[in-house]
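ugh finaly. both done.
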Amino acid sequence: MNRRAQLPDGRLLRLDDGLLGVLRAGVLTVDGVAVREEPAVWEETASLGAQMRARYASCAPSDIPGLREARDLYNAFGMEPTRHRPSSEALLRRVLQGKDLYRLNNVVDTCNLASLEFLLPIGLYDRDLVRGDVTLRLGREGEEYPGIRKGPVHLAGRLGLFDDGGGFGSPTSDSQRTCVHAGTTRLLAVIMSTRAFAPDAMGACVSRFGELLVRHCGGAVTFAGLLDGGS
């Protein structure tokens, strides 16, 4: 497995040595997307939500097998999943409460659909707003960024994505600085799990997410691969 990947524009995305033996990540880039409203993704999300309510209606979150992987990811980095919930668990909890997911635009809504389907955290970024190479590593003391629709996301001792401008992503919330907006055309997506999540399963998630993005947002997949923190 690879600990680094070269993106189509030549930039590198790599795993820090501190993640050896712990992290597996699926990486995807899609170019040529068009940001808009897309009722089809709302319908697909509503259908999946109904299926999940039927399947898990009587279950506590801790009893839902698919949530264990994201929780294990948090625990592996000393993060308490009941205090700072993985983004995928937050989506599932909302669905199980009978609430619709927030509708923002076709790109973000497709990411939420995929995260709900996989029950894994997915970071989604406007690649043109990412500055230079990207490293997945543990945050250092004082590192943080303004989260989307929330206050600062603190990264000290926690898993995050970092570029030349600092932190911009985590399994909990992405940053305002690199978020998808009306003019976004090039995407970078990172699906996060522990190494206990099989490479074939992660590869299937990457492939499925690319399919969903192209169907609902247009464009084409320009890179798909896995990063592995094997020692």
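ok and the 2nd:
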Amino acid sequence: MAEIVLNVELRENTGTGGARAARRDGKVPGILYGGTLGPVPVAVRANEFRKALHSGKLLGHVVTLKHEGAAQSVIAKAIQFHPVTDEATHFDLYRVDEHQLIKISVPVHFTNHEASPGLKRGGALNVALHEIELMVPADSIPEELVIDLTGLEIGDTVRASDVTLPKGASVSSHDRNLTVASVATSSAMKSLTGDEAAAEPAA
């Protein structure tokens, strides 16, 4: 069962004016997509939405939507924020079955930097992708993908297809062959090599 529950109200007025009215009433407006019912304008109390957002388990996770006693599983895929206050101003939810395969981007994190010979020698970790797009069951979305740097030498690369995934998940065809990160020669190492070459006596 989802850990986050959002109690929503239906919005009668749609468009920009309806969204403004919801915000004046202390609510965050949103749209519920997917399924056979079409888009439905909804709103959530701002304090409740803020609490769910700060839990870290709202965006990109399956949550339970409740309205007048009825519950359904949804996933939050987009949240807009005010540029000054950083408060949520709008959100998009999508109806899902808990075991349905969905496409979603998951953040990448790296571990065991100290166990990489290339990094220990002064190499630099060049990160090309900060997120990887997965096809994954809605109830098995990982919070992050962890890449182990153990044993990586200078010149080694990690592709999206090399990353360990949860059961039932796969990398989307768009990202499958992309490089996630590589261990490269750092500018400091290049500078050191140049200094050593300059210091060598002429033959």
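summary for the 2nd one i guess: The two ends are 74 Å apart (CA to CA).
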